[in-house]
Write a structure and sequence with these properties.
252 residues; 11 strands; Rossmann fold; N-terminal domain of TfIIb; 4-stranded antiparallel sheet; alpha/beta; globular
């Protein structure tokens, strides 16, 4: 399963991820829409890096992820802070909160990891129900252009006592990019090897907009990578922001 062996080394192998810049873009979107959330969910939160940043901003934060191993890392990191987020193990398409929140975010292509479109449509519906009226859902995806371009690529990430070799392949029929990972972690004088397989679905902007609309969202914005502007052709990462209407739909 993805993120079992990788969880221990994830933060060391991804120390170049611009979490602060992503948070700054969230704040830009919120300011553009005149919103000041007090409560938030970090969906597919992983080791909790974004959840911790949101909590540092003064929000009451719940981190949600399906990987118990990644959540273990998140809880350990949060224990060292004064106002830690809470964390819960749930699949995105099974999201259920005790009370609504003002903001839901999902960063670093967590949406791509839902490889069944029907499950993603259910996830969008669950996020909609999890928000207060007027609340906002912000997420990003790896674009179809990016995932297609990864086909046949080989990459190496490393730290002093861990390195990860990963190979990508893209299937045009299924629109799934498969990452085969070999993870080597030093244990004393020896190295332990683990293998994982990660799958990402290449969602298209128009279908994501349609499914957000079907879930009930309005004022759907599609942006380039951390820019409050429409994406350019070949954009590698797309950001979406969608609002829950302040007018309740029938049955809500």
């Amino acid at each position: 399963m993805a993120y079992e062996a990788l969880a221990d080394a994830y933060d060391r192998l991804t120390n170049d991820v611009p979490y602060e810049a992503i948070l700054a873009f969230y704040k830009t979107i919120l300011a553009d829409r005149g919103l000041t959330p007090r409560t938030a969910v970090d969906l597919a939160c992983g080791t909790g890096s974004m959840a911790l940043l949101l909590a540092r901003e003064g929000l009451s934060v719940l981190g949600v992820d399906q990987s118990e191993e990644m959540l273990t890392q998140a809880v350990e990191k949060a224990a060292k802070t004064d106002a830690p987020p809470y964390f819960v193990c749930q699949r995105m398409e099974r999201l259920r909160l005790p009370r609504p929140v003002d903001l839901v975010v999902c960063c670093l292509d967590g949406v791509n990891y839902v490889t069944d479109p029907a499950a993603l449509r259910e996830a969008f519906a669950r996020v909609y129900r999890a928000l207060h009226p007027g609340g906002l859902f912000i997420f990003d995806v790896n674009s179809e252009a990016k995932l297609r371009g990864l086909d046949g690529q080989i990459f190496l990430d490393e730290d002093d006592d861990v390195f990860c070799l990963w190979r990508a392949s893209f299937d045009e029929q299924t629109r799934i990019c498969t990452y085969g990972m070999d993870i080597f972690q030093k244990q004393g004088k020896l190295w332990r090897r683990d293998c994982e397989e990660h799958l990402e679905f290449a969602y298209r902007s128009d279908e994501l907009r349609l499914w957000l609309t079907e879930a009930g969202f309005t004022e759907i914005g599609v942006y380039g990578d951390r820019r409050l502007e429409p994406p350019t052709p070949g954009e590698q990462r797309l950001f979406f922001a969608a609002k829950k209407s302040t007018i309740a739909r029938e049955g809500e």
